[in-house]
Design brief:
This protein folds into two domains: 53 residues, no CATH class; 143 residues, Serine Threonine Protein Phosphatase 5, Tetratricopeptide repeat (Alpha Horseshoe). The chain has eight helices and two strands. The model has no long low-confidence stretch (mean pLDDT 88).
Length: 205
């Protein structure tokens, strides 16, 4: 059975004044004529609207970006003053605002913002010795951005070390180093190796 599709070239023209679309060839084609009639009707209706059609939204809302940046900087300032609870509150507000960006805004921007904010909040938790919360936030940070996120990898691993979860900490360091050598991660890897040696020494005695 022949299933070859038949392609028919049909030339269309657009009137420079009215923007009406018409078929140039004289070959009868009722289906096409109906489609063009519908298209031209929609066009006339849009042009005749009293209220102009709104422009599409800007790719990134600058006001939202400024608000997120201001919250983050306020959190950083609170952290520098050792007001860790206040810093956590500001970072949380910024995270919530970044998460509610409209769907048409670039996903990459949201991931960058959230990755940095989670890393900052992880550091604030760590300063309060709340290792579990710090580990969760650091993990969220590296999930949002694995590359060029040394702070996220280091903070996740450091929290695990503080909780005595050395095997997991070692895995996190190794994974972080896959994205590039870093002095802090290399130093933490040595710290973990020393902790393993001490652990083995205690067991042997």
């Amino acid at each position: 059975m022949d299933t070859t599709d038949v392609f028919e070239y049909i030339q269309l023209t657009v009137d420079a004044t009215t923007n009406k679309v018409t078929k140039t060839s004289s070959t009868p084609n009722k289906s096409l004529q109906d489609e063009l009639a519908t298209l031209n009707t929609y066009h006339r209706q849009l042009v005749s609207l009293e209220t102009p059609i709104p422009l599409p939204p800007v790719p990134v809302n600058p006001k939202r970006s400024q608000q997120i940046g201001k919250l983050r900087e306020t959190g950083n300032e609170a952290f520098r003053k050792a007001k860790h609870q206040d810093a956590i509150k500001m970072y949380t507000l910024a995270i919530d605002m970044a998460k509610t960006r409209p769907g048409w805004e670039p996903a990459g921007l949201v991931r960058e913002e959230i990755a940095a904010l989670y890393a900052n909040r992880a550091q604030a938790y760590m300063s309060m010795r709340e290792w579990a919360d710090g580990a969760v936030d650091a993990q969220a940070s590296v999930e949002m951005r694995a590359v060029n996120n040394t702070k996220g990898w280091w903070r996740r691993s450091k929290c695990l070390v503080e909780m005595g979860r050395l095997e997991e900490a070692q895995e996190v360091v190794s994974k972080g180093l896959e994205f590039g050598a870093d002095a802090d991660l290399l130093s933490l890897r040595k710290e973990i190796e020393v902790a393993f040696d001490k652990q083995a020494a205690r067991i042997s005695t």
